[in-house]
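Is this the right way to post structure tokens for a design question? Let me know if I should format differently. Anyway, here goes:
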């Protein structure tokens, strides 16, 4: 879950609302229903796709991609926060971490430079025309959080994004 939030730049609610049908292995993309019911697509790494396939074979989610203890029940936001805190603890991070921090670091990793401001061109599907449309992805990311960088490196090592 954490790897998907980070590698696709998802909000917490977007992750929890994903269904298995939102993962497209042909286009290597994730369909995301964002704020205001707007549909967008994001990247899916080959390694993460393999992890998701393994997860799917083991847990067989019925409705949601990530389900709670009861089949068909949506995974809770509080449980996701606990998973992130445990991952941060295993990575040796003592500072507070938030799910949204991973979303903010998404573009910085894409830029690969660690600069505070990054501009990236990506293809994204226009939901009105269903055709790829280039756009500029701009973000302001403060790189003062050493803990966040450590967590990202841990995620990359664990999942090998």
């Amino acid at each position: 879950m954490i790897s998907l939030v980070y590698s696709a730049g998802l909000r917490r609610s977007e992750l929890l609302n994903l269904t298995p049908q939102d993962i497209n292995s042909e286009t290597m993309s994730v369909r995301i229903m964002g704020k205001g019911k707007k549909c967008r697509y994001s990247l899916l790494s080959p390694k993460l796709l393999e992890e998701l396939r393994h997860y799917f074979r083991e847990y067989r989610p019925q409705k949601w991609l990530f389900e709670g203890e009861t089949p068909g029940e949506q995974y809770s936001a509080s449980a996701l926060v606990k998973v992130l805190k445990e991952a941060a603890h295993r990575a040796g991070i003592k500072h507070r971490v938030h799910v949204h921090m991973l979303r903010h670091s998404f573009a910085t990793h894409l830029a690969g430079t660690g600069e505070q401001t990054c501009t990236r061109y990506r293809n994204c599907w226009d939901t009105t025309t269903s055709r790829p449309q280039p756009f500029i992805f701009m973000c302001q990311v403060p790189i003062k959080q050493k803990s966040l960088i450590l967590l990202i490196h841990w995620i990359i090592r664990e999942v090998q994004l």
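Format looks fine. Someone answered above. Worth noting: The CA atoms of residues 70 and 146 lie 37 Å apart. Strands lie at 23-24, 29-33, 39-43, 117-125, 132-140.
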